[in-house]
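Structure tokens please, single chain.
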Amino acid sequence: TMRRVVRQSKFRHVFGQAVKNDQCYDDIRVSRVTWDSSFCAVNPRFVAIIIEASGGGAFLVLPLHKTGRIDKSYPTVCGHTGPVLDIDWCPHNDQVIASGSEDCTVMVWQIPENGLTLSLTEPVVILEGHSKRVGIVAWHPTARNVLLSAGCDNAIIIWNVGTGEALINLDDMHSDMIYNVSWNRNGSLICTASKDKKVRVIDPRKQEIVAEKEKAHEGARPMRAIFLADGNVFTTGFSRMSERQLALWNPKNMEEPIALHEMDTSNGVLLPFYDPDTSIIYLCGKGDSSIRYFEITDESPYVHYLNTFSSKEPQRGMGYMPKRGLDVNKCEIARFFKLHERKCEPIIMTVPRKSDLFQDDLYPDTAGPEAALEAEEWFEGKNADPLLISLKDGYIPGKNRDLKVVKKNILDSKPTANKKCDLISIPKKTADAASGQNEAKLDEILKEIKSIKDTICNQDERISKLEQQMAKIAA
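Here you go.
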């Protein structure tokens, strides 16, 4: 029998379409910082975008319906003292977002239910532990309040955001800059791509490298590595001849890739966005004006090219909506938020279907917003897959509970054996007196910092207004 030349796939005809101009978010000064993160994070309520900011780092958080021109004086999240490099929405609370910055800190923010009315300078918690800038933040997929950060100090820290503590510090596994970090489906492993050209699979709780591949891609430009739902690892990188490549690996045997494809000779880093429900990977090159998509299957050649969405303008960054934020009535299977120099443009991917009925083959049950584990359970060694929800009647966002941070008093806790730092024991009485004085001093410093931050925000708004006046006079 002859082999069918055209492979059967329900995703062969997926097509992308940019929304009309009035449904874009306009007049946004997208950050110009040189860093290869996506600069944009989206969930069913908000779109967050890292922007240019004088005197520190800031990002915008806009309710999804707030399209059109965004006023220069629109409030921002502006607590960092250096540029923001990465942002990530919490998968279990649509009002909580984490940010990593050049100021070496990670901050976690609670956004009011209807969006910002005033600029936000006070995070719920500041996580300090990195000695260099923090370029990567990634929430655990299934455990509540567990956040990973990676910095240019080549360290990965995993935090319990509920207590503000760094519980795992992987500071001796990478000898060079970490390009990206990805959790696997149940959050028991992470994989990383690094400047030393290695892809590593790490068990963070055992603090050991489970698998690694040297020179996953031979070229010197940045790589990316992400976990797929079946446990394989997908990478993008460059060949020695500077051609862009994509590859598929089995962590149980990293000698040879399952598949390796060469694409083109553009020099932008390929950011992969993965949908575990449909096994589609979308590749967005920084500086490209296209999104290519591939279907991953278990039959050769394993990575099947589907199509390319092309446009005129290059992308500076890209946000990717979780499945529960899509319109199932329109057979929408992905929605991207493409950053231009001065605007954010949603791009909608759909599978054309004649019927108006719910297409259950396109929408298997997907990860919902409930956490499967508490932070403590995960740190103790438990694993759990994401809790799934049906999208049959569409997703209705529920009430989110506020993020509460209960700081533990370090002086009360006994030094534990597995912590790397030894706590200095202080005689109790002097400790109490000293801590009283220290708290008063701390309060004083915090008040001063807050007033300076408020001043900066006000000055920013004043500068914007003056710029507008200048523009009017010049026009």
